Amino acid sequence: MEEGRHALGVQEGGLLVKRTRLNPISKKRRAALPARSAVIREVHERDQHCQFISRLWAPESGWEEGDLVGVPTRCSGPLDVHEIVRRSQNSKAWLDPEACVLLCRRHHEVVTLNPKLGHMLGLVKWSWE
After folding, report:
1. Chain-centre distance of CA 63, in angstroms?
2. Which residues neighbour 80 within 8 Å (Cβ) at sequence distance 6 or greater?
3. Three-state secondary structure of the chain
4. How far apart are CA 43 and CA 95, in angstroms?
5. 95 in Cβ contact with 81 (< 8 Å)
6. Residue 89: Cβ within 10 Å count
């Protein structure tokens, strides 16, 4: 085997192997972390508790009997900042406090796993909205 090819990380058998550690976060994303911390602080100050229950019982929520079967009504776990618009739909939404709400860990999981319910409660927006 040629020395140059081995130095590039090609092993016998033709498999490419990355010899350096993968970077867990890009430089661009790392530069945005202070702005994200400010958004998290602002959302915590504004909401102060899980917004799932207050949205659930709001008259404009629009849910019907049967929509809430199996949905937990008690909060549990730490409070997480939930992005109403997914990062894959709008990469700048995670830095907008108006596009974020505070949810307990349990309800954050419920909304993530049941986007239709989240949309009904105003906790999820579709890409075309």
Report:
1. 24
2. 102, 103, 104, 105, 108
3. CCHHHHHCCECCCCCECCCCCCCCCCHHHHHHHHHHHHHHHHHHHHHCCCCHHHHHCCHHHCCCCCCCCCCCCCCCCCEEEEECCCCCCCCCHHHCHHHEEEEEHHHHHHHHHCHHHHHHCCCCCCCCC
4. 11
5. no
6. 13
CA angle in degrees (0–180, nearest 5) for 129-120-104: 105
Q: What are 61's two structure tokens?
A: 């929520």
CA dist 66 and 30 (Å) reads 44
Q: Write the CA distances from 11 to 5, 20, 80, integer angstroms.
A: 8, 15, 45
**What is the residue whose two structure tokens read 């202070």?**
34
Domain map (residue ranges) of the chain: 49-62+76-129
Residue with tokens 């992005």: 83
The answer to whether the CB of 81 falls within 8 A of the CB of 40 is yes
- Tell me the pLDDT tens digit for each residue of 44-87: 999 999 999 888 888 777 777 777 778 888 899 999 999 999 88
Global pTM value:
0.74
